[in-house]
TrEMBL record:
Residues 33-52 bind DNA. InterPro entries: Homeodomain-like_sf (IPR009057), HTH-type_TetR-like_transc_reg (IPR050109), HTH_TetR (IPR001647), Tet_transcr_reg_TetR-rel_C_sf (IPR036271), TetR_C_Proteobacteria (IPR039536). It comes from the Bacteria. Residues 10-70 form the HTH tetR-type domain. It holds the Pfam family TetR_C_7. Keywords: DNA-binding, Transcription, Transcription regulation. Transmembrane segments: none annotated. This is DNA-binding transcriptional regulator, AcrR family. It comes from Allopseudospirillum japonicum. GO terms for molecular function: DNA-binding transcription factor activity; transcription cis-regulatory region binding.
Length: 203
């Protein structure tokens, strides 16, 4: 059983991350102050700084938590799981993440403030797209080393796969084009992405 003080600290940590993500997506990075986050999370500013150190670090932690929620922060490779099963699982989780309102709002925030806060765009790239590419590349390398697929450049292949998964749904969600594809249509599209990728890198 966890000590009560540790449980409270973890609960405050979660409260801060949730409040930060809400405010960053609603107001943008520049317009959101640590004071506002403290009020939203019902903690002191000192508590926020003791957990995260700076607003930049807090922004990165909020991004990482979002990936956690979509099961995209752990390693992708699963022992004894067929490549098609693994890739479809990744495609579904990745697509759900990049079309979520929070992820789209964060992306717009980074684009809008890339000139004034380039470090935020850099942090977004490192913790979001680049981290995703690297994790998928490691997974693809496992497939390559085990003779399941032939992938000489796994980073290129990882980028290709994730770009395929963006698809029409991502554009519709980002540009508020309605209706979105139905769940059945989008699932069918992701399945064709996986099949196309596997065909391209088949042994």
């Amino acid at each position: 059983m966890q000590p009560l003080s540790k449980h409270r600290s973890e609960e405050k940590h979660r409260q801060i991350l949730q409040a930060a993500m809400r405010l960053f997506t609603e107001q943008g990075f520049e317009a959101t102050s640590m004071e506002q986050i403290a009020q939203e999370a019902k903690v002191s500013k000192q508590t926020i700084y003791s957990h995260f150190g700076s607003k930049d670090v807090l922004f990165g932690a909020a991004l990482h938590q979002k990936c956690d929620q979509h099961a995209l922060s752990a390693e992708f490779f699963v022992e004894d799981e067929a490549p098609r099963t693994t890739l479809l699982r990744i495609a579904q989780a990745f697509s759900a993440l990049i079309t979520s309102p929070e992820a789209l709002a964060v992306y717009r925030t980074c684009l809008a403030q890339v000139d004034t806060y380039p470090q935020i765009a850099q942090r977004f790239f490192e913790l979001g797209p680049n981290a995703m590419i690297e994790r998928l590349a490691r997974c693809l390398d496992e497939f390559h080393q085990r003779g399941l697929l032939h992938i000489p450049n796994t980073r290129y292949a990882a980028t290709q796969f994730l770009m395929l998964c963006h698809g029409e749904q991502r554009y519709r969600a980002a540009l508020h084009i309605h209706p979105l594809l139905s769940p059945q249509q989008h699932e069918a599209y992701l399945n064709t992405c996986v099949d196309l990728f596997l065909k391209g890198y088949a042994i």
